[in-house]
Design goal:
The protein is α/β, with parallel strands linked by helices and 432 residues long. It is built from twelve helices and 16 strands. Strands 7, 8, 9, 10, 11, 12, 13, 14, 15 and 16 form a ten-stranded mixed sheet that branches. Helix 2 crosses helix 3. It is elongated.
Length: 432
């Protein structure tokens, strides 16, 4: 039921706030249900004076109560399992990503004040705050979803909220196979790589599914090993017996107390980890991550934003320089080549589908350049009548170098078939 055009929702919202006088009412002692009923009584008394039918009153009541004591439009969008991203560009402009495609939502907020109230209640659950003195915040909701808020004066259209939702069910590598993200052969190879303790960097653009794949790969780590996860905002959802999850801490209101990912990576080395999983490398922590990979913590995993496997290695060079160490470029490249074994690159297509477009092995340094060889790739063939991207996965025929160190039984798990590989003389080696 739509709300009549003649109804001033902003005035009703302000009137309800005045009636409740939340600063005097001890709402902290009320349960969510008691607070909802308390506000509902006052709102119904206000609506009785207006010429509205029962359906119109119910629609107004639902929207205003959600805005004043709930999460407004966000509440229903968070409950919709088909929605993976919520983007609010001000009170009257809400977009969602549904099944990989962005669409304009009919949901609205009655005013900037209503949206700010919802943001405050959303962040209250996370222990974070946002205002003019601290106009940006990243937080994690109780269900693991990630929320980013930017408010004026940094934005010109009012408060901007972006929520990246995460599915309630933990996905496995075979779930991604069934979705077409990768082939069974690629899944079998990645299983071998994780169990053989190869260091893997998952790369791709925003929204390509890097964290989802990292979750799936982490789930392949043997139960007997100790895992330390390090994240800026905790998103990984691992089901592991010996797991320690660390989360960075932003500055407090006084601008102090910050704990960066670099600090957590260095501290993790003292916690007897078998594997270190860094949610994302963005800066100087790349150097500490490379050092960890090179000092007996094989099988570590991380993600990085990049446009291609080559770009991610270049980005690692730049991020290592951001650590402030005066290292020669050749030394940095040797560190990267020694630490990183595989780059798994994800792509997102116009139809909303996400696929692993390339798996590349780092083979060493030659003439000052990092050498790589591609193991698997995705070939795009076009789109069908419905706009869905069509293509196929293919093995390049290059035999992974680390296969030489594996026993025959370790090269082919029974649940996955690895395609027959070409002989060594057909390997394609490309400089990075």
């Amino acid at each position: 039921m739509s709300i009549p055009d003649g109804v001033d929702l902003r005035a009703l919202h302000e009137g309800l706030i005045q009636r409740l006088d939340l600063r005097r009412t001890d709402v902290n002692r009320m349960s969510d249900q008691e607070l909802w009923q308390f506000a509902q009584r006052h709102l119904r008394a206000m609506l009785e004076l207006r010429p509205l039918d029962a359906a119109q009153r119910a629609a107004i009541e639902r929207q205003l109560l959600q805005e004043v004591v709930g999460l407004g439009a966000i509440e229903e969008l968070l409950a919709d399992e088909e929605i993976s991203e919520i983007m609010i560009n001000g009170p009257g402009d809400v977009f969602v990503e549904r099944r990989g495609r962005i669409e304009h939502s009919t949901r609205r907020f009655s005013s900037v004040q209503a949206l700010m109230g919802v943001i405050e209640r959303l962040l209250q659950r996370t222990g974070r705050r946002v205002d003019e003195s601290s106009p940006m915040v990243d937080a994690r909701l109780s269900d693991g979803s990630r929320v980013n808020v930017v408010v004026p004066p940094l934005t010109l259209s009012g408060p901007v909220v972006t929520i990246r939702k995460f599915g309630r069910e933990r996905m496995s590598l075979m779930d991604l196979v069934n979705r077409g993200t990768l082939s069974r052969e690629m899944a079998g190879f990645l299983r071998i790589a994780v169990q053989a303790r190869r260091n893997i960097v998952v790369s791709g653009g925003t929204g390509t599914g890097k964290t989802t794949l990292l979750n799936c790969l982490s789930g392949l780590i043997p139960a007997a090993e100790r895992i330390i996860t390090i994240e800026d905002s905790a998103e990984l959802r691992l089901c592991h017996q010996n797991l320690v999850a660390l989360e960075a801490r932003p500055r407090n209101a006084e601008g102090a107390g910050v704990i960066e990912i670099r600090d957590l990576v260095r501290n993790a080395l003292r916690m007897r980890p078998d594997r270190i999983v860094v949610g994302e490398c963005r800066g100087g922590e790349a150097l500490d991550m490379l050092q960890a990979m090179n000092t007996g913590h094989d099988g570590s995993l991380t993600t990085a934003h990049a446009n291609s496997p080559r770009d991610v290695l270049t980005r690692l060079e730049v991020m290592t320089m951001m650590a402030g160490m005066e290292l020669p470029l050749l030394a940095i490249r040797e560190q990267i080549a020694s630490a990183v074994n595989l780059v798994v690159h994800l792509g997102r297509f116009s139809c909303g589908s996400r696929r692993i477009v390339s798996i590349v092995e780092v083979t060493g340094v030659e003439s000052g350049r990092i050498q790589t060889q591609e193991l698997f790739r995705y070939h795009r063939q076009g789109t069908d009548a419905s706009g869905q991207v069509q293509g196929f996965f293919q093995s390049s025929g290059n035999e992974p170098c680390f296969f030489e160190d594996l026993a025959p039984g370790e090269k082919s798990p029974p649940e996955h078939a690895i395609p027959k590989l070409m002989p060594a003389e057909h390997r394609m080696v490309s400089p990075c």
